[in-house]
Amino acid sequence: MKEIPGGVVAAKGFQAAGIRVGVKSSPVPDGNQPIAPVPFGGAGKKDLALICSDRVCSAAGMFTTNQVKAAPVYVTKDHIADGTVWGIIANSGNANACAPNSRIHAEEMCDAIAEELGLSPADFAVCSTGVIGQELNVGAILSGIPGLAASLSDDPQASDNAARAIMTTDTVKKEIAVELELGGKTVRLGGIAKGSGMIHPNMGTMLSFVTCDAAITPHMLSEIVHEVVPRTFNRVTVDGDTSTNDTFLVLANGAAGNPLIEWKNEDYAALKDALMYICTDLARKMAADGEGASRLITCTVHGSENESKAERLSRSVVGSSLLKAAMFGADANWGRVLCAMGYSGANFDPEQVDVTFRSVAGEVPVCKLGSALDFDEDFAKKVLSQDEVVIDVKLYEGDAEATCWGCDLTYEYVKINGDYRS
Amino acid sequence: MKEIPGGVVAAKGFQAAGIRVGVKSSPVPDGNQPIAPVPFGGAGKKDLALICSDRVCSAAGMFTTNQVKAAPVYVTKDHIADGTVWGIIANSGNANACAPNSRIHAEEMCDAIAEELGLSPADFAVCSTGVIGQELNVGAILSGIPGLAASLSDDPQASDNAARAIMTTDTVKKEIAVELELGGKTVRLGGIAKGSGMIHPNMGTMLSFVTCDAAITPHMLSEIVHEVVPRTFNRVTVDGDTSTNDTFLVLANGAAGNPLIEWKNEDYAALKDALMYICTDLARKMAADGEGASRLITCTVHGSENESKAERLSRSVVGSSLLKAAMFGADANWGRVLCAMGYSGANFDPEQVDVTFRSVAGEVPVCKLGSALDFDEDFAKKVLSQDEVVIDVKLYEGDAEATCWGCDLTYEYVKINGDYRS
Fold first, then answer.
1. DSSP code, position B191
2. Residue-level pLDDT at A27
3. Nearest CA of chain A to the CA of B110: how many Å?
4. Across the interface, do B343 and A65 touch by the CB < 8 Å criterion?
């Protein structure tokens, strides 16, 4: 398996597009509100994306567990209930949630793109991200649909456009593709994602779409998704707030011509590994680009008696506000690591825990068997000042492990989420 | 029942003291570290407190649920296992957790105060709050014990001193007392508390001690505590980090001469109401003085089918980083209220929810039956800019309700917890 360019159009038979239709507000030329317009993306920022295959795809997804779900989540669930779609249409700038006519507008988006491309509405998944509680400007979207369809392309720029059209406060686009051999055929997967970004007056949402030209049944694809997503996207936390719109979708159109994957054979395992690679990469990019984040925080718990305990402990560490603030200050507050493990709900012996901070600058063991180690504060500061900091936690129970990803808590997070009007 | 002055010495037979022994560091006269010393309290700040009765007390408590517990928590649990103590000794500046000899040092504190006062070590509860992972300077404490005992007094200033001696980054002392009639006798209760305050390099801890001169059995006192604490202190969240040292203790010495409360009669109910009043007051003060907080956020969920669901929903709202940041910005982001309810784990119908923001400046209904209401943004900003903001959530399921308290998320929180060394 190797990385290749092309994002979601790397896989055969897939095209993409991303354009601006005006759902995202334009900046207000008002000197008193210098920050407000920025999260919207400002004038000219793309806000409508399309990914479409030249044939029907096996489709599988996972969705927000929030009880308050945006209308497009319900519509997409209905449309992939038969295990197939042809494509995905997605807008940013408005979450189409808790707002008038949200279900109707989500269906209108599918109706319009289906009519434009000569397909059926149920052939499309639909996603939205942005403001909650304001009616979607569906008119802008509908009038943009012909232009969107017309700009479909398999040029790598088209994937770039789609990746940008789903961004909200993301500061970098998130895109990756890989290539592997399956049954003597070259199979490609590509993905784009957006992270937890805040838009006035609401909402951080995770969206990620992966295309794949492997031949695989919807059931097997769903099995892979349910193995991969809990170990990748579900191990990212930026602020603990699960959005109403979170959606992960993978579409596999079979254009690679590999033998159909219809049971859990070697090819299944290889494709799962490839999707794990794609999703790990996108999940890490999402954590690193968390709102206001200045660095990626990775916590791996080793030596656990089982993976779910390791995950629970690791998630509690990267989710701790105190730990996140300490990481912003590059402060080796290992006590906060133990404290967060302690309230995670997982059982462990606090006197059988080692903690080490590491980064490209080196590593600093700070706690051995639950008790403090002496360390050089200046060196620790250097280690913790890098773009990625890893917190290695070692238990002495077994050999299971799990990794979760988060980011530091910064002034900028508070600013983005609270202060943009002042 | 009425409020009276005197804090923990308002109840008959109780004395208190608070002095400085040097556990809290003094400020370093280094122009490059202007912030560091402040959270410690600086030179001259009190760091050792004592509360003591003139007779044995019924005692009951509740403690941190963190699996990583500080040594004094274990020692105190042992000492109140028989339902009685005479007093409480507590230091700030060091949590005596995850550090060498922590259990020994906690026991030494009890030994020393017991010897000084001619009592037994098991007659004392012991508490610590401050740095995790550094050995307690127990020598400073032990040499301060004679002076601590000598300054015991029932003057209201003594309660003030004790309240200040347990403060860390708290910006105001937290103290209250009330008086009521029980069986024809005047009964008094008084309490002090410290909130979630950060000390280098770690730790926010909640400590609260209540004295009471009612006659009540240890078992009945414990029953009251277990009814009151889950509805008061356990409904406060500042940053979701449960400390290793959290302790609530109530001591009742019977000096009021009321008929002994030994079952759940009218007097039991009246005393429970009084303790609820005390703990609600201290819990609200703790939330309002959360690290970096600029305002108290109160969320009441009404119309729930049961109290535990109402509590879970309310806690999720006041614990949401996004909502907390919005409250800092005085931004009426009601979508974040629904979003936080949605991931709380409690079942409810998102289309059967009303949300209103209110404060002394007025009230702003923002959501009716799950959908947006029009409101005046300027007026909403005014309502949300007050010292206390109440979020009223109405369901249409039943008549149970619950209130939780939190605070906004500010630059100052990030600064206190991350930036003090830079």
1. E
2. 42
3. 23
4. yes
Nearest CA in chain A to B420: A329
Q: Are strands B14-19 and B174-182 parallel, antiparallel or unpaired?
A: unpaired
- Binning chain B into helix, strand and coil, the percentages to the nearest 5 are 35, 30, 35
Give the H/E segment covering residue B52.
strand B48-63
Minimum-distance CB partner of A66 among B342, B411, B414: B342
| Chain B residues in contact with A95 (beta carbon < 8 A) | 335
User: Choosing among B65, B408, B417, which should be mutated to test the A contact, i.e. which has the most A CBs within 10 A?
Assistant: B417
Global ipTM? 0.71
3-state secondary structure chain A: CEEECCHHHCCCCEEEEEECCCCCCCCCCCCCCCCCHHHHCCCCCCCEEEEEEEEEEEEEEEECCCCCCCHHHHHHHHHCCCCEEEEEEEEEEECCCCCCCHHHHHHHHHHHHHHHHCCCHHHEEEEEEEECCCCCCHHHHHHHHHHHHHCCECCHHHHHHHHHHCCCCCCCCEEEEEEEEECCEEEEEEEEEECCCCECCECCCCEEEEEECCCECHHHHHHHHHHHHHHCHHHECCCCCCCCCCEEEEEECCCCCCCCECCCCHHHHHHHHHHHHHHHHHHHHHHHCCCCCCCEEEEEEEEECCHHHHHHHHHHHHHCHHHHHHHHCCCCCHHHHHHHHHCCCCCCCCCCEEEEEEECCEEEEEEECCEECCCCHHHHHHHHCCCEEEEEEEECCCCEEEEEEEECCCHHHHHHHHCCCC
Nearest C-alpha of chain A: how many angstroms from B389?
Answer: 15
Which of B205, B211, B237, B280 is catalytic? The answer is B205
Average pLDDT over residues A34-53: 65
Taking residue A21's Cβ as centre, other Cβ atoms within 10 Å add up to 21
- What type of residue is B170? D
Q: Residue A58 and residue A261: Cα distance in Å, rounded?
A: 11
Alpha-carbon gap, residue A197 to A206, rounded angstroms? 8
- What is the nearest CA distance from B164 to chain A, expressed in angstroms? 24
What integer best gives the mean pLDDT of chain A? Answer: 88
Report CB contact under 8 Å: A67, B202.
Answer: no
pLDDT of amino acid A196: 65
pLDDT computed for residue A409 by the predictor: 86
**Are B322 and A367 inside 8 Å of each other by CB?**
no
Q: Which residue has the higher pLDDT, A127 or A288?
A: A127
What would the two tokens of residue B102 be? Answer: 């922590």
Closest CA to B61 of B266, B245, B260: B245
Dihedral-angle region of residue B128 (phi above 0 means left; psi in -120 to 50 means alpha; beta otherwise): beta
**What is the pairing mode between strands A207-212 and A247-252?**
parallel
Among A67, A240, A339, whose Cβ lies nearest the Cβ of B132?
Answer: A339
Separation of alpha carbons B204 and B184, rounded Å: 42
Residue B245 identity (one-letter amino acid): N
d(CA B127, CA B75): 9
Contact B418 A339 (CB under 8 A): no
**Closest partner residue to A241 among B243, B320, B421, by Cβ?**
B320
Please tell me the distance in Å from A69's CA to the nearest CA on chain B: 8
pLDDT < 70: residue spans in chain B? 25-44, 196-205, 239-241, 419-422
Looking at the DSSP bridge assignments, the partners of residue B362 are: B359
Tokens of A294: 């200045």
Looking at residue B235, what is its pLDDT? 87
Residue B214: strand, helix, or coil = coil
Nearest by CB to A418, which of B243, B320, B331?
A: B331
**pLDDT class for A239, splitting at 50, 70, 90?**
low
pLDDT for residue B236 = 84
pLDDT digits (tens, 9 = 90+) for A15-31: 999 999 999 864 433 33
Question: What CA–CA distance (Å, rounded) separates A152 from A309?
Answer: 45
